[in-house]
UniProtKB/TrEMBL annotation:
<dbReference type="InterPro" id="IPR049636">
    <property type="entry name" value="HNF4-like_DBD"/>
</dbReference>
<keyword id="KW-0805">Transcription regulation</keyword>
<dbReference type="Pfam" id="PF00104">
    <property type="entry name" value="Hormone_recep"/>
</dbReference>
<dbReference type="InterPro" id="IPR051152">
    <property type="entry name" value="C.elegans_Orphan_NR"/>
</dbReference>
<feature type="domain" description="NR LBD">
    <location>
        <begin position="265"/>
        <end position="518"/>
    </location>
</feature>
<feature type="region of interest" description="Disordered">
    <location>
        <begin position="74"/>
        <end position="123"/>
    </location>
</feature>
<dbReference type="InterPro" id="IPR000536">
    <property type="entry name" value="Nucl_hrmn_rcpt_lig-bd"/>
</dbReference>
<keyword id="KW-0479">Metal-binding</keyword>
<feature type="compositionally biased region" description="Polar residues">
    <location>
        <begin position="85"/>
        <end position="101"/>
    </location>
</feature>
<dbReference type="InterPro" id="IPR035500">
    <property type="entry name" value="NHR-like_dom_sf"/>
</dbReference>
<dbReference type="GO" id="GO:0000978">
    <property type="term" value="F:RNA polymerase II cis-regulatory region sequence-specific DNA binding"/>
</dbReference>
<feature type="compositionally biased region" description="Basic and acidic residues">
    <location>
        <begin position="74"/>
        <end position="84"/>
    </location>
</feature>
<dbReference type="InterPro" id="IPR013088">
    <property type="entry name" value="Znf_NHR/GATA"/>
</dbReference>
<feature type="domain" description="Nuclear receptor">
    <location>
        <begin position="1"/>
        <end position="75"/>
    </location>
</feature>
<dbReference type="GO" id="GO:0005634">
    <property type="term" value="C:nucleus"/>
</dbReference>
<keyword id="KW-0675">Receptor</keyword>
<keyword id="KW-0804">Transcription</keyword>
Amino acid sequence: MSCLVCETDAHGQHFGIRCCRACAAFFRRTLTMNLRYKCRFDRKCEVSFNKRYSCRCCRYEKCVRVGMRKDMVQNKSEAEKDSSGNETDSIGHSPHSSLESYTYRPPSFDKQIQNPDPPPLLMNGNFVQEVSSEAYQPNGDLHQQPNFPFHRTVIEEVGRAVMPAPQQQQHMQMQPHIPSQFDYHYTDLLSTDEHNMPSSSTQHYNNVVPQPEYNNQDSGNPNMFAMAAQQATQDLHVNVQNVLTPSIDNLFGQPPDTFCQLPDIPLTLCQQALLAYREHNKQWPDQDKMIENVPLDMENFMRNHYIEIEHIARFCMSIRVFAQLPKDQKWIIFKHFWTRFYELDRCFATCQRLGYNLSDERGLTLNGQIINFGISVVKLENISDMDATQVKNFLKGSMDKFRLIFINPFKKLQPTEYELMYMMMSIMWSVSNLPGITDATRDMSEKVELRLAEDLHTYYAEQYDNNNPNYAGRITRLSSIASAVDEITERKREDSQVSKTFNIFKNDFFFSDLTDFPV
């Protein structure tokens, strides 16, 4: 017996018709999450065994046309009230659900749904996520994204790092959730076949003790933040030792659910990273706020660098597999990862705003300033006794190599956001040879790498609707760019050692205390 919707093998009666679990899950998810789809063509797309994923809009319309009944779909609250405690096969999830096809549900959503008044933090009380029928749209916007506790301004960020936390926060943070036995069996890392099999490991997240909600609202007085920022930027090395390191250490000690507030439908690792990155990407300025043809203030440049590192730590904690690691393993991976993330993030943000012209050597800073290697600088005396020409001569070799092996290949390839996440996640978990990595973390990283390969294959298969010109070439170029980032990091290690030996920079310009190449 075949499914009346997609013509594959059916698995029984669901919502009034004979269909497979995948179509039943798709129909249920569409209704319970109130999703709306748009067809790219004229609403006449083929929905069959080979093309059931090509257009969500037409797939949903066919579900209705062949007789699926909306009144038979239970919402989540009704399902939880089922006295049997069991739900039908119709709730099966697809591990490859596209990131664009969900609506985020905050922890308090089930309470709010009982209240006819719209929540104060949502525009017009609208939970509907308008989506396209395209399988993946890595460069599309999420209109309503989770409200992760990212800070919005440099002053607030630096001020928060040096100002004491509110007493209520301090009290809560003294009692982080520590599982009695660390569990490396993550549902995120299961293959497609494993995802459809019942497993005791899926209980890992269901048995976590509920944690108190952290109040991440900004507090305090802007003048206090300004004074704190001034104090925090007087000496870079002292900042890293006494301010930034403890701040990140505190982040790494918080319960995983503090940052990993993911929606009900399962997301792959790359989709989790996409969600976290789009929130992280908000720190970059819009095009209408960029400035050019002004001197580069080295003090502000270094301060922004200082801020970005903590933002990267928050990104890492938004990846569930990372957030559940022991703190010592988090630190090892973070020191290896953040410099590489920094280069990829800055290059992608620059290309998004300034384009992919190979002859354009401009870059973008966090405060929106457009810079190039020949730009005039001010306040250089705060970080070096050399003049601008001498410093540029010292860094010129690294910059030339940077453009040759990384910037130019990146601009030629023009990777999508999803491909960017693949590179970032591959780099994050290429940790097998790092000193201090435990066998358990090493085994888990190998599972991550296998899962990433499957995620990328699925992405290309759905992106090109199985009519892809050879995408193996793109994978090779992605790997080449990731390797180039490693080469750049190695060159920075050499520059850091030279700087330390000859006192080129007064302070730790390369943040070696927070990298895996301390000198």
